[in-house]
Amino acid sequence: MNIHEYQGKDILKRYGVRVQEGIVADTAEEAVEAAKKLTEQTGTSWYVIKAQIHAGGRGKGGGVKLAKNLEQVQEIAGNIIGMQLVTKQTGAEGRKVHKVLVAQDVYYPGESETKEFYMSVLLDRATGKNVIIYTTEGGMDIEEVAEAHPEKIHKEYIDPRVGLQGFQARKIAFNLGVEGEAFKEMVKFVAALYKAYDDTDSAMFEINPVLKTSDNKILAVDAKVTLDENALYRHKDFAALRDTNEEDPLEVEASASNLNYVKLDGNVGCMVNGAGLAMATMDIIKLSGGEPANFLDVGGGANAQTVEAGFRIILKDPNVKAILINIFGGIVRCDRVANGVVEAYKNIGDIHVPIIVRLQGTNAEEGARIIDESGLKVYSAVLLKDAAQKVKEVLAEQNIA
């Protein structure tokens, strides 16, 4: 589950990570009040206005601006809030900005120069260890740095059984080239960042940039945090951080029905029980000349309610020209699934796309008989190749394949 920058910074602060202070605002007027409060708290007189969306590259898209007075705060915040912000990570359609973070200016003058670094913490599945990835080339797209200067990307692997060791934090600070007070601050920063990542069961913490200020403080100017949804039961308060405005409406609706749904760009909707079977089904659709319109796993206990919910979600995608239901009857009997399909079809009514139902497992033949005798525009199949052939035929009838 992705969260906003301001939410990620709040988590970091709980663990003693120094961050660029800021206050979130929903309107231009609130942004001005936030700026005033920020001046009282930090003494800053310039403000950074940051669009809060779940995507990187906001600055290049015009979603991060510097305001030098309160009038500019109101003007800039008013322009950003409500805009459709387009970045490399949003796609051409962009994301609508609903709120901004009014942050303090941390690039103030001093005796030494400021320096930007990149740092992230995530799991390396190949080694089974957590890894801290870092580089002196902060403030840039890490992909570009990795491609142009791979030698500048450092990795420090942490055995989860013993956690981050002191010498590892010092090694990171040394490789980043910081000295004196900044070295001590960086060691503290690395240790606190890793603890925040580990304690919250997160999938990723990415800080870009990590800033060494002109007075040798080390702080997180940005925070991109991905929480592990599978661990939310251990962090009940994190569920409130979810912003459904940042998610596809169909995916939000699916999660409310406990369905695992991901929208794709194809023309054949698919409904399957089991992630592995879903991947195979998507391959079959491709081999049949179609393109999968979604990933939809209804789980092992598929019934009339879940099938109907899946139907309604798939049918809301105007690109869907056919639906393939592929169910393996292990936990659930195929005849019950077939009855669920027929019941859901009748409840929804007025379905204009052909539906192919492939049932395999317990009572598969009985399930196929129920489908065939329903009188509805539903085609049964027992073998996967038969389902694939039927998909090919219905697409050909519509001059799609």
UniProtKB/TrEMBL annotation:
<feature type="binding site">
    <location>
        <position position="273"/>
    </location>
    <ligand>
        <name>substrate</name>
    </ligand>
</feature>
<keyword id="KW-0067">ATP-binding</keyword>
<dbReference type="GO" id="GO:0042709">
    <property type="term" value="C:succinate-CoA ligase complex"/>
</dbReference>
<comment type="pathway">
    <text>Carbohydrate metabolism; tricarboxylic acid cycle; succinate from succinyl-CoA (ligase route): step 1/1.</text>
</comment>
<dbReference type="GO" id="GO:0005524">
    <property type="term" value="F:ATP binding"/>
</dbReference>
<dbReference type="InterPro" id="IPR017866">
    <property type="entry name" value="Succ-CoA_synthase_bsu_CS"/>
</dbReference>
<feature type="domain" description="ATP-grasp fold succinyl-CoA synthetase-type">
    <location>
        <begin position="2"/>
        <end position="210"/>
    </location>
</feature>
<protein>
    <recommendedName>
        <fullName>Succinate--CoA ligase [ADP-forming] subunit beta</fullName>
        <ecNumber>6.2.1.5</ecNumber>
    </recommendedName>
</protein>
<dbReference type="InterPro" id="IPR005811">
    <property type="entry name" value="SUCC_ACL_C"/>
</dbReference>
<dbReference type="Pfam" id="PF08442">
    <property type="entry name" value="ATP-grasp_2"/>
</dbReference>
<dbReference type="InterPro" id="IPR005809">
    <property type="entry name" value="Succ_CoA_ligase-like_bsu"/>
</dbReference>
<keyword id="KW-0816">Tricarboxylic acid cycle</keyword>
<feature type="binding site">
    <location>
        <position position="208"/>
    </location>
    <ligand>
        <name>Mg(2+)</name>
    </ligand>
</feature>
<feature type="binding site">
    <location>
        <begin position="330"/>
        <end position="332"/>
    </location>
    <ligand>
        <name>substrate</name>
    </ligand>
</feature>
<comment type="function">
    <text>Succinyl-CoA synthetase functions in the citric acid cycle (TCA), coupling the hydrolysis of succinyl-CoA to the synthesis of either ATP or GTP and thus represents the only step of substrate-level phosphorylation in the TCA. The beta subunit provides nucleotide specificity of the enzyme and binds the substrate succinate, while the binding sites for coenzyme A and phosphate are found in the alpha subunit.</text>
</comment>
<comment type="subunit">
    <text>Heterotetramer of two alpha and two beta subunits.</text>
</comment>
<keyword id="KW-0547">Nucleotide-binding</keyword>
<keyword id="KW-0436">Ligase</keyword>
<keyword id="KW-0479">Metal-binding</keyword>
<dbReference type="GO" id="GO:0000287">
    <property type="term" value="F:magnesium ion binding"/>
</dbReference>
<feature type="domain" description="ATP-citrate synthase/succinyl-CoA ligase C-terminal">
    <location>
        <begin position="271"/>
        <end position="391"/>
    </location>
</feature>
<feature type="binding site">
    <location>
        <position position="116"/>
    </location>
    <ligand>
        <name>ATP</name>
    </ligand>
</feature>
<dbReference type="GO" id="GO:0004776">
    <property type="term" value="F:succinate-CoA ligase (GDP-forming) activity"/>
</dbReference>
<dbReference type="InterPro" id="IPR013650">
    <property type="entry name" value="ATP-grasp_succ-CoA_synth-type"/>
</dbReference>
<dbReference type="GO" id="GO:0004775">
    <property type="term" value="F:succinate-CoA ligase (ADP-forming) activity"/>
</dbReference>
<dbReference type="InterPro" id="IPR013815">
    <property type="entry name" value="ATP_grasp_subdomain_1"/>
</dbReference>
<keyword id="KW-0460">Magnesium</keyword>
<feature type="binding site">
    <location>
        <position position="50"/>
    </location>
    <ligand>
        <name>ATP</name>
    </ligand>
</feature>
<feature type="binding site">
    <location>
        <begin position="57"/>
        <end position="59"/>
    </location>
    <ligand>
        <name>ATP</name>
    </ligand>
</feature>
<comment type="similarity">
    <text>Belongs to the succinate/malate CoA ligase beta subunit family.</text>
</comment>
<dbReference type="InterPro" id="IPR016102">
    <property type="entry name" value="Succinyl-CoA_synth-like"/>
</dbReference>
<dbReference type="GO" id="GO:0006099">
    <property type="term" value="P:tricarboxylic acid cycle"/>
</dbReference>
<feature type="binding site">
    <location>
        <position position="222"/>
    </location>
    <ligand>
        <name>Mg(2+)</name>
    </ligand>
</feature>
<dbReference type="GO" id="GO:0006104">
    <property type="term" value="P:succinyl-CoA metabolic process"/>
</dbReference>
<feature type="binding site">
    <location>
        <position position="106"/>
    </location>
    <ligand>
        <name>ATP</name>
    </ligand>
</feature>
<dbReference type="Pfam" id="PF00549">
    <property type="entry name" value="Ligase_CoA"/>
</dbReference>
<dbReference type="GO" id="GO:0005829">
    <property type="term" value="C:cytosol"/>
</dbReference>
